[in-house]
Amino acid sequence: IATFGIQEALKQLGVTEINEGTSTGSKNFSNGEIIESYSPVDGKLIGKVKATTKEDYDKMMQTATVAFKEWKTKPAPLRGEVVRQFGEKLREKKEALGKLVSYEMGKSYQEGLGEVQEMIDICDFAVGLSRQLHGLTMHSERPGHRMYEQYHPLGVVGIISAFNFPVAVWAWNTALAWICGDVCVWKPSEKAPICGIACQNIAAEVFKENGLPEGISNLINGDYKVGEMLTKDTRVPLISATGSTRMGKIVAQEVAARLGKSLLELGGNNAIIVTPDADIKMTVIGAVFGAVGTAGQRCTSTRRLIIHESVYDTVKDAIIKAYGQLKIGNPLDETNHVGPVIDKDAVKMYENALEQVVAEGGNIIVEGGVLSGEGYESGCYVKPAIAEAKPHYKIVQHETFAPVLYLLKYSGDVHNAIAIQNEVAQGLSSAIMTNNLREAEAFLSVQGSDCGIANVNIGTSGAEIGGAFGGEKETGGGRESGSDAWKVYMRRQTNTINYTTELPLAQGIKFDL
Ligand code: UN1
Known about the structure:
It is a single chain. The protein is an alpha/beta fold. 37% of the residues lie in helices and 20% in strands. β4 (137-138) and β5 form a beta hairpin. 2-aminohexanedioic acid (UN1) binds at residues 118, 164-165, 169, 242, 298-300, 461-463.
């Protein structure tokens, strides 16, 4: 399948043995500890990254702040042109970057390519948007007055991303922020730092080729302490953070304490409702990809199937059969469906979830387990598992970032299923499988799904970039990517202009001198 191997991919992406984790573009400097990145695919060391110290951070931030002054004055379509070139470079490097994503994170090569495609798509979207970014014009209540609103660049945007989408989530944020006139500081997950190096190299090249200053794209690396430098920094008006709800609660409080803005994209507990009118074949494809794709480590992964009792056994049998056909192994081998989870901690969480669901009374119908032996030396390959459970189980209410699927049964009408679907703390993605118009519309209505994403006859994962992406409740309320998500990266200003020789006050107030 491969036209070149991982070593060639790393070379194409400018990744070396030891990489500077603090970068303002082509200037790299780093004095922190060494972070080693091991591949969950084969357990081998991919490369090392030098983490960011406080001094490194301050130097970087100073450069970013200066860069903002220049970048914000460039016309937005010109900023769009730079993002267009960035998208072109991503097209050139798609195979190499897709491979690295697969190798460092463990998702299938196809999904690695898909992730790079999301980056390319958001660049295209951002280019078009760079000629828009429009506010409204309103009618003033006063004669001879004009009122309108405009959007100005915001400043330095902090991006904290997770290991599971180690490149795309950064791109959603940074491509929009750049066309909005902001400069970005990215802290990738310490579980996928090499992906961060590769992306920063691509971005740096583009800014340099355009004679633009250092500091429009910045990278920092390290653990939560480095993240904290960013979240507590008053020079950073917006923090966009993707990750666990636990992390999000800490970030939200740190940012709020200084009245900064945060855009949070946190955990999901996504369900597919399968009604008596569902197309079973489509249900199986959607549910199985949703549950085992990316080894169950998407925030949109399908965790729960809420199945009507009349079709429960049919759906259950079909899904068990499909699981029987899954091939688990090296994700760079395209004949495999499921790769490894990110690390041994993730394996432990997976094992704990399976133990807990049994302890709470659940019934395992597709056995899990950790694979060992040839090809599984990293110890990170697990068997996708299925348990029959009850909606109220603690473990079912909880997001386990692993390929564990819970089957839940409902009876009566679709509103009973919707109630189960909504009775969790998270509110990211949701889906209904039905050919019944009444059920579909009820699911999408005000009495329906309470999630940020609600799909009909599509699974819970694999959203397109054109829509706003994010969710409610413990998912954090943020919206990234398409639609009007760009607005959060800008500051809105309302302008009222008086072109008369009188000064009438609003609300008809008289103030005669
Ligand atoms: C994530 O898991 O953080 O909708 C993002 C999807 C992808 C993005 C997931 N487009 O599954």
